[in-house]
Amino acid sequence: MSPTIGLPPPEPESCLVQSRASRARYKGGTLIQEDVRDLETHERRVRDPDAYRPEACPRCKHPTLHVHCYPQRRPIGEAGGAVAVRVVQYICASPGCRATWRILPMILARHLWRWWRTVERTVKPADTQSRADAPRIPERTERRWRARLATSAAVVIALLAQRGDSELMARAAASDRELSRMDLIDTFARWTSTRPGFRLSAPATVTHTLERGIRVM
């Protein structure tokens, strides 16, 4: 019998729970577009300078942001190898701010350099269909992902409660044990009827939108 059975989930790494929103040294950051859920939509929006442009700078609320650059991401782990994905980065026009904001579609994991579908098919293979020729994720990487998902979800649950997700809090309170991050993902999917393929990206996007820097995994 495992010595961890019956024990609460371990505390998450600091990188999963450190907020960037209130730290002065983080001038700008990443914004995630929740309604962009496929590569075709993303590529169409990138071609239009206004399609991803925020209405105001999230840092200083200045109403004007200019296109700054088009960096590339090369997410790996799917059939066909790495694909270059161009993303857009804006810069605040206020001379006293000049914060830069990179916009990502919901399908790209901000901090893992992967498609979210790659992560999901690895940690939840029973729920996610995978192409037979999809490359195998290194065992060390999979162990790291699973270890993060086994840690406590208390910080994320409290953050969602601030948004008014009382049902999720009620389910957490009714549980006979502290919820792990994997528990949270499963509960969130049932509660929101999130379909396979988006069961990690959906709560990750909501969490990042509420508090930049806080991560599901």
Notes on the protein architecture:
- The protein contains 8 helices and 6 strands, in the order αβαβββββαααααα.
- With 217 residues, it is an alpha+beta fold.
- It has one domain (14-210).
- It is globular and about 55 Å long.
- The mean pLDDT is 87.
Strand content: 5-15%
Query: How do the SSEs run, as a string of H and E?
Result: HEHEEEEEHHHHHH
Biggest sheet, spatial arrangement of strands: 1-6-5-2
Helix tally?
8
C-alpha termini separation: 27 Å
Main β-sheet, in a few words?
4 strands, mixed
State mean pLDDT (0 to 100 scale).
Answer: 87
SS elements, strand count: 6
Bin the helical content. Answer: 25-40%
What is the number of independent domains? 1
> What is the C-alpha radius of gyration, as a whole number of Å?
18 Å
| Apparent shape | globular
Name the assembly state: single chain
Low-confidence stretches: none
Q: Which structural class matches the secondary elements?
A: alpha+beta
